[in-house]
Amino acid sequence: MLVTAPLAEFCTLTIDEIYGELPSRIYASLLMRGRSTIQQLAGDTGMNARQLRHGLALLLQHNLLHYHLDVGSPHYFYEANVEHAYNLARTGKILQMVEETHGAAAKDVMQTIILTGLTRVGDLVDAYQNRIDRMNRIKEKLKAEEDPFGNGVESHEVNGEPKPKPTPQSSKSDPLISSIADLNKIIYKLVEAELLIGVHKTSFESPEDLLATIESDIQKTYPGGEVKGNKAKAEYKDKVAEALRKNRSESRSLKRKLEQNGLSAKRRKLFDGAASANGTPDGEMDLGIDPQQVMCINYEKCLVELRNRRLMHYAEEAFGQTTSWVYASLLNLLSKDISRCRDDPITDHYERDEEKPAPVVVTTSQLLDVLKTSLDLSVGLGQVDADKISVTAAEKIAELPPRKKFFIDVQAEADANASSDDDDEGEDVKPATNGVNGVNGTHVTNCVNGTAKRVDRRTQLRQHLLLLSESTQGFLRHCGAEEWTVDFVPLMAALRQAEIDATIENTVGREGVRLVRMLRAKGKLDEKAIMSVALMRKADMSKKLAEMHKYGFVQTQEVPREAKADVKKSFFLWYFDGTMALERILDVSYKTMIHSLQVLDTLREKDQHVLSLIKRSDVKGQEDDKLRKIHKEKLTQFLKLERMLLGQIQRVDDLVAVLRDY
């Protein structure tokens, strides 16, 4: 990840917001000076050894640092982990995703691990055991108050007067996890979903240090420590990639242990059924994991799940709610075998195509099995006459991912479509596929020869899938007979382009987007060519180009007319650079989030008196009764502004995730 000054400042402010000033000062020094020893950090920050050890321990506990020990060196080198620091801002989204996918109890476990950082399995079990014991003692105390004589009969009179009926405990006060067996099941579920992974000895190595170590070890196996010849270099790349993949698979050792112990999801269901039939309590189920095993959050897998939610949102905007739910179910099936959003160019390098892993596919039957029966698939399907449907076009199978088309000849495309229609004459046609999307909430049927015909659930599902596969964004690819897959690389490239265009439109207007799309298609043009193609007046066009150049959306290139450079005799070409525009938008996004955190800090200083009051033990939880009216108004206004600022950060992060991470 490219660490710019705004990104570094935002990560520092995020750590300061969550963990305080001490670790944030150390982190800021590491970002500014690069990898450093503890002695260098002491000189840069002015902290003593005790403060540095405390700050470094906290940062390491939450996996916010890399460290490395060179051979023969007595000192460790520390380096900032920017990716994990930025992911702290996504904690709320991750917890919401876990709650919607795996339940409130799984969210509670994930929240506990996020708060404590790297966690041993035994420590996690002990913490929840103490919590369960405390809740049991409270329940026993309440039961004793209801039955003071211990004879199983409640007392109905107090001092000769009827005892008021006790108010039942709120369900919110009941623990989400009532036994260690429940905790074990949740840990299994999160590990199987790869949201929790094991920590191993190279987990704290930076990617650069790990690559250098592996390359050094492999080079020693060659004569003289040198790799010579094209064949040897290709073999060397394969060995490096294989070693990196083997190291990466170490983080999945926890999941493999569960599979080896026979504690997969299907086997757990069988175990639970057998235990209940035999009267065996669930708490006797063995963990099968070493209590000393350390676990942490797998942010790479969390990003995959967040990307699925974002793609579902895009599909809902394009096709409606029902089709988006179908797409979400398909993405969930695909994501079981996808561990990260983007491939690493070194780790995922394969010299031969046959060595590459096969793309993950989902069949129609698999998708039909996981869809909820309560989902009405007839909603959102268009009503099209059968004679307007081409079987060849609708059922076309694309075995390979699409390639980007830079230029399209409109006349050639029209001729091709005409010839395709001629070839399709005389062929049997299917009942209407989703060439047209229906009105949301409208139940429709397909028409054959003008008469309505009911279709089964499988056919309706295929119509939603065909609609997704025929989209211009490329949400889905029909890769085989009843097989479907998603090409994430071209899909996310198209969505990134759409987000860039939307940002340009919001900044400089629709005319700016027209000019950008034209420059993207035509390449570098001078003002005369732009004016003739865009059909704009020269004054308006020059003003709009200058405005977009100020925001960094378009660039200029000076071309001298003569060998001797002269600005007066040169002409300038305008062009659109997508990479530079993307970096510019990211830079502005980081600054927007920084500004939101700074405004929030200013508001806290302004309302410090009210915030200090609600932290008092005699006021906490009783703000309505204890606070004055003016203080309650100030508190309400502050909480409203805080929600708005934090919501703004989350919305900007949605854009950053699409442009940079997905």
Automatic annotation (TrEMBL):
Compartments reported by the entry: Nucleus
Subunit organization: Component of the RNA polymerase III (Pol III) complex consisting of 17 subunits.
Keywords for this protein: DNA-directed RNA polymerase, Nucleus, Transcription
Domain RNA polymerase III subunit RPC82-related helix-turn-helix positions: 10-69
Name of this protein: DNA-directed RNA polymerase III subunit RPC3
UniProt family annotation: Belongs to the RNA polymerase beta chain family.
A Pfam family hit: RNA_pol_Rpc82
Ranges of residues in domain RNA polymerase III Rpc82 C -terminal: 186-495
Every DNA-directed RNA polymerase III subunit RPC3 winged-helix domain range: 501-575
Principal location listed in the UniProt entry: nucleus
Annotated region (Disordered), positions in chain: 143-175, 416-441
Signal peptide: none
Role this protein plays: DNA-dependent RNA polymerase catalyzes the transcription of DNA into RNA using the four ribonucleoside triphosphates as substrates. Specific core component of RNA polymerase III which synthesizes small RNAs, such as 5S rRNA and tRNAs.
Gene3D superfamilies, sorted: Winged helix-like DNA-binding domain superfamily/Winged helix DNA-binding domain
InterPro entries: POLR3C_WHD (IPR055207), RNA_pol_III_RPC82-rel_HTH (IPR013197), RNA_pol_III_Rpc82_C (IPR008806), RPC3 (IPR039748), WH-like_DNA-bd_sf (IPR036388)
Skewed-composition ranges (Basic and acidic residues): 154-164
Lineage: Eukaryota, Fungi, Dikarya, Ascomycota, Pezizomycotina
